Amino acid sequence: xxxxxxxxxxxxxxxxxxxxxxxxxxxxxxxxxxxxxxxxxxxxxxxxxxxxxxxxxxxxxxxxxxxxxxxxxxxxxxxxxxxxxxxxxxxxxxxxxxxxxxxxxxxxxxxxxxxxxxxxxxxxxxxxxxxxxxxxxxxxxxxxxxxxxxxxxxxxxxxxxxxxxxxxxxxxxxxxxxxxxxxxxxxxxxxxxxxxxxxxxxxxxxxxxxxxxxxxxxxxxxxxxxxxxxxxxxxxxxxxxxxxxxxxxxxxxxxxxxxxxxxxxxxxxxxxxxxxxxxxxxxxxxxxxxxxxxxxxxxxxxxxxxxxxxxxxxxxxxxxxxxxxxxxxxxxxxxxxx
Length: 338
Ligand SMILES: N[C@@H](CCC(=O)N[C@@H](CS)C(=O)NCC(=O)O)C(=O)O
What we know:
This protein has 12 helices and 14 strands. Helix 2 crosses helix 8, helix 2 packs antiparallel against helix 11 and helix 8 crosses helix 11.
């Protein structure tokens, strides 16, 4: 399939691999792992420990795809990418999947030769300030120096928000969130702005996290999710349904702990289909029949993944909020497996 990048695209891409349906799955199977693009380190989403073992919600999203494809969630390799590098790495074929707190926007969906496979975290942009500043609202930030990261929607929303409210600011731009938080801690800026989940992740990096507060305003919609290249619908669907299976599993009450029992004993037709006992099984995705079972067994359902990485079982302690299931007051919703 031919890729057409609009003239004037910001990204100079020398060689875009020719993608056709199934090409990515074939290549992934041949090399034996999924190459997944993640952040350079962001607690709760994608961060390496001292031994170089990656964890987080975005990391688990990649592991779910590996579980679906190989029946083995460990068959993933991670490529740390800054916000600026991420799309080129996917376009050039360096990675098979970008799973890096990336906001789905019209421009990114239509102008980069890429496809968003779903939303694994509904976020919104916020502001963090030092308590000493005595500021209670973003409307009091006129004239502030603000730490941000290059190549993000954050930069663009910030400009919109200040313009719309007739306020001025001085941007202090960094390439990595580690640098932004250091800049903030060193007092190079009064304010740090990013997706709110990331503010919580960065706040715990401060010597004294209680010295900073997150202001109440949410100034944008940031639906974050995994991204693939255009032109390979098979791969797109594998990534999309890997995420859907986790959400559907939560809705049905199927967890990593009870999935074996369910597979043996359930009489519920929905669970039987989810676990590949009846229905189309793996055929539509060109995967084995136990693709969803393997995800749930090895990575867990969406709720387990959320709580472990960013929720109440994690240092971030983020409430489910928008990311609760649609049936529980949130907007996480997956089409049915049938
Ligand atoms: N969701 C926004 C922002 C994503 C973003 O890159 N945020 C920074 C700020 S916390 C980040 O994740 N940095 C991680 C890194 O530096 O590797 C986007 O897609 O543009």
